[in-house]
């Protein structure tokens, strides 16, 4: 039998090329349209696919839509090709992507201007020690990053502050910051936090904060806050998942698992719809906290001793975080005020040893969300979906059918 070596070799090469193409496609290399789109127009697949997933109060965020596509090529802290350089001297909308997997050790916080998207999809991008500050910025989208503070700096993973608006924080993995993982404060509003994994941290999320003995000193400024938190995964945290004051909040379809002190907290005339969340905790488990969490107050904190009773604190009692301070100062500042939040609480699920705490309080003061949204009935199946898809993951998450 005669073997035609030339045909055999050509066939082998063709077979290898097909295999390489399929492997590259599975990694998203051939689906990456960055090489084809120099402008982040609505026709670019990577732009339209992301914007289709917007929901909640931050649904109007456009990020870098219509702007130049800028690719980060260097993992250095600063200099040409770095993320810091891409965020500097921005004179118009900008959609920032990454050329490869990279770990960036930051020497200071990165400031994110308005009309910017930081899009880590397609690569594993990690920021260490510092995170992102969004100050007086509108139309910001941040998606698919890992930000790990390593408990080295008194900073935040994401700080949305100083009258920022139309901000969407999506598919991040946030952990180990000595201050907080996420703030929304100081007159900021219209923010959505979706499919984020918060883990291994103490004071996780603060939605507005108190800076005066008069608890309501900044009420008029901060009551404008409107924040949606949905399909987020809070794992092995201590508290503030979230802690919310003053503004309007929609907290739905989140999974809180194995908090060490308490789950959620609402107070000071916040208006919150809390629906379809899953609270899962067990009283007999090992503590995975570090020896201590450093705090800005200089107190080294550890909460392992509270684990046995933590399941009964899926939340603090309404207003509990601020009741003592309110009563202490009520005669001076509290006339006509309420230390409690106005709550509409429904359809939440409690697994393991977790027990309900929050109940509705003056729910007629809580307006229905002014948008449509994809709501999932809370079930163990949904909990597993959130475990798999929340965070800096490559999995596709469902978007809403309306904007």
From TrEMBL:
One of its GO terms (molecular function) is pectate lyase activity. Residues 73-285 form the Pectate lyase domain. The keyword Transport does not apply. Residues 1-31 form the signal peptide. Pathway: Glycan metabolism; pectin degradation; 2-dehydro-3-deoxy-D-gluconate from pectin: step 2/5. It catalyses: Eliminative cleavage of (1->4)-alpha-D-galacturonan to give oligosaccharides with 4-deoxy-alpha-D-galact-4-enuronosyl groups at their non-reducing ends. Its EC number is 4.2.2.2. SUPFAM superfamilies: Pectin lyase-like (SSF51126). InterPro entries: AmbAllergen (IPR018082), Pec_lyase (IPR002022), Pectin_lyas_fold (IPR012334), Pectin_lyase_fold/virulence (IPR011050), PEL (IPR045032). Its cofactor is Ca(2+). It is found in: Secreted. The keyword Lyase applies. GO terms for cellular component: extracellular region. Belongs to the polysaccharide lyase 1 family. This is pectate lyase. It comes from Paraburkholderia pallida. The lineage of its organism: Bacteria, Pseudomonadati, Pseudomonadota, Betaproteobacteria, Burkholderiales.
